[in-house]
């Protein structure tokens, strides 16, 4: 199994527009389907409940690392915390990085999630599989979001 997920998409939106969709917590919440309690701030944790039907019980925490405008947004989180009875806080989180690059006609957005080798072996494969599919869906979500709200 690979240690990292890497996805990319070309968006027909400026880096400034994509940056806003990624880092404004209300916009992020719209396309990511999460109700965040507050803004993203480097060095702070932002949390919120998933809004996908059937997953509303799920609270996700984003430990924000870097926000380099129109270039890099990164955070740590616990991938696929699927069991509400489990405390995932003792696990080593994965690192999520969004990298933006201006291209002709828009922005190349790359998302990388790494550190799956540190996830406990009994849930590593499922967490990787679920997040791999999840990132494919989330890139479609942000693409639709920036197209609908230019």
Automatic annotation (TrEMBL):
Organism domain of life: Bacteria
Residue ranges of every copy of the Activator of Hsp90 ATPase homologue 1/2-like C-terminal domain listed in the record: 12-146
SUPFAM superfamilies, sorted: Bet v1-like
Family: Belongs to the AHA1 family.
Record protein name field: SRPBCC family protein
């Amino acid at each position: 199994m690979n240690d990292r997920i890497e996805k990319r998409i070309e968006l027909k939106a400026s880096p400034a527009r994509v940056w806003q969709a990624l880092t404004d917590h209300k916009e992020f919440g719209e396309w990511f389907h999460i109700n965040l309690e507050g803004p993203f701030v480097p060095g702070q944790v932002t949390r919120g409940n998933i809004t996908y039907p059937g997953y509303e019980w799920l609270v996700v925490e984003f430990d924000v690392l870097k926000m380099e405008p129109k270039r890099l947004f990164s955070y740590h989180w616990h991938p696929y915390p699927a069991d509400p009875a489990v405390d995932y806080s003792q696990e080593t989180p994965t690192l999520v990085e969004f990298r933006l690059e201006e291209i002709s006609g828009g922005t190349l957005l790359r998302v990388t999630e790494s550190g799956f080798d540190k996830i406990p072996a009994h849930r590593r494969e499922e967490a990787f599989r679920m997040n791999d599919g999840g990132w494919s869906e989330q890139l479609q979500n942000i693409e639709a979001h920036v197209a609908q709200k230019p």
